[in-house]
UniProtKB/TrEMBL annotation:
Signal peptide positions on this chain: 1-30
Source organism, top-level taxon: Eukaryota
Keywords carried by this UniProt record: Kinase, Secreted, Signal, Transferase
Family note: Belongs to the DIPK family.
Subcellular location: Secreted
Gene: DIPK2B
Protein name per its UniProtKB record: Divergent protein kinase domain 2B isoform X1
Molecular functions (GO terms): kinase activity
Keyword Endoplasmic reticulum applies: no
Annotated ranges, domain FAM69 protein-kinase: 212-391
Any one of the GO CC terms: extracellular region
Entry coiled-coil feature ranges: none
Entry-linked InterPro entries: DIPK2A/B, FAM69_kinase_dom
Organism from which the protein derives: Tursiops truncatus (Atlantic bottle-nosed dolphin)
């Protein structure tokens, strides 16, 4: 078989790497469905593309979200399959995420998800803001401009990530960070070769810019790294990133289950309430809260286990060490404060975040379509009543938490024990805990 010819952009980025081959099929395909775990069947059409710098965002910034998984793209260990298009071309570039197949050995493949930090449109706005901040032309080297900022110059001199270095960044994660939380960010940051230390001595200049840019634009990939699912946190596994994309384990959006049978709806609602409970109370004494929610923020693995699919709206308060309140002083606002939001956006004090906040949002916006008209009377009326109490923001914290607890008690016996719920089957046959 002939070797694919290396495109000039890919050759400039990584000499010696083959151009990525995108496998395209004329078969119908739903974008929201998970990728096929077995892309071994020969597709009808095979076309070679230079995936390269433009799609990943590397043409403007080699030090954006990361490079840990770039080799897998260019070695064809990440494949896009079965795209439905009237003409053969690059995969759609206006989607927030894409189902793909991932392999470590070219023998076994598994579905994963590649996600944008922000939308393509928002990226373009962000890029223009960066160029304008330096009085640069309409297009510029993002990396070169960001390197010259005062904030990044402070990062270059810093040995440790401290709260003053992240003040003014718009991420809820950094609204009022503790030193313990920031040390965890540095120690578990996977885009450096030698993670494990709370000091940044092993960070190159580009490593520091990459971490700063990611924290400023979208902290979701950082949260996946510092609170990994392997340790029991309700988040998908972070597999790596390249350019402005990250790759994580694949989930199906919760919205796809709004028409699910009653027992499955009860199971998912029960799990979601349990996730919120673990975010309020956990062994590390961090209090997590959502600033806003929508159904796409939650997903389900193929074993039925529910996870947080998008953690970008998660804030974190350190109850053990306390948090340093985010400064509202104008001098802490800079271009990094304005990449994805207005520069004048003010963040409320962490002291004003109530215990009930995430429950009110989820009970009011996410659970009603999942649970409505699914159960016989009088169970449905009981569910609706507790759901209404749980989603009522004017109620005191204890009343909302009590309503959520009662709702879990109602839902628990409505769950069934069968292989559809592989995350707890067959344990549920022998232990009431499951």
């Amino acid at each position: 078989m002939m070797e694919p010819r290396l495109g000039p952009e890919a050759a400039a980025l990584h000499p010696g790497w083959p151009a990525l081959l995108l496998w395209v099929s004329g078969l119908s395909y739903s974008v929201s469905s998970p990728a096929s775990p077995s892309p071994t069947l020969v597709p009808r059409v095979r076309t070679s593309y230079n995936f390269g710098r433009t799609f990943l965002g590397l043409d403007k910034c080699n030090a954006c979200i990361g490079t840990s998984i770039c080799k897998k793209f260019f070695k064809e260990e990440i494949r896009f399959d079965n795209w439905l298009a009237s003409r053969l071309g690059l995969i759609p570039d206006d989607l927030p995420s894409y189902p793909v197949n991932y392999s470590d050995d070219f023998k076994s493949w598994r579905p994963v998800e590649i996600s944008r930090l922000v939308s393509k449109h928002q990226n373009e706005i962000s890029d223009r803001r960066i160029c304008a901040s330096a009085a640069a032309p309409k297009t510029c080297s993002i990396e070169r401009v960001l390197r010259k900022t005062g904030r990044f110059q402070k990062w270059l001199q810093a040995k440790r990530l401290t709260p003053d270095l992240v003040q003014g960044l718009p991420s809820p994660l950094l609204r009022c960070p503790s030193q313990r939380l920031l040390d965890r960010v540095v120690r578990r940051y996977a885009e450096v070769a030698d993670a494990g230390s709370i000091f940044m001595d092993h960070f190159t200049d580009r490593d520091k810019l990459r971490l700063l840019y990611t924290l400023a634009v979208n902290a979701h990939p950082i949260l996946l790294q510092i609170f990994p699912g392997a340790e029991g946190w309700p988040l998908p596994r972070y597999l790596g990133s390249c350019g402005r994309f990250l790759v994580s384990t694949s989930t199906s959006p919760l919205q796809e289950f709004y028409g699910a049978p009653a027992d499955q709806a009860a199971d998912l609602a029960y799990q979601l309430l349990g996730v919120l409970e673990s975010l309020r109370s956990n062994d590390l004494n961090y209090f997590f809260y959502f600033t806003h929610v929508d159904v796409d923020m939650f997903g389900i693995f193929n074993n039925g286990h529910l996870f947080i699919r998008d953690a970008s709206a998660l804030g974190v308060i350190d109850r053990q060490e306390g948090s340093q309140a985010a400064s509202r002083a104008g001098e802490n606002k800079d271009i990094f404060s304005c990449l994805v939001s207005g520069c004048q956006t003010e963040l409320p004090s962490c002291d004003t975040i109530p215990e009930k906040q995430s429950l009110v949002l989820v009970c009011g916006q996410v659970l009603p379509p999942l649970l409505q008209a699914k159960f016989p009377s009088p169970v449905q009326e009981e569910i609706d009543a507790e759901l209404a109490r749980c989603g009522e923001g004017t109620r005191p914290d204890p009343e909302v938490l009590q309503a959520a607890s009662r709702l879990k008690d109602i839902l628990r016996p409505l769950r069934t024990c069968d292989p559809r719920f592989a995350y707890r089957y067959p344990d549920c046959k022998y232990n009431d805990k499951f």
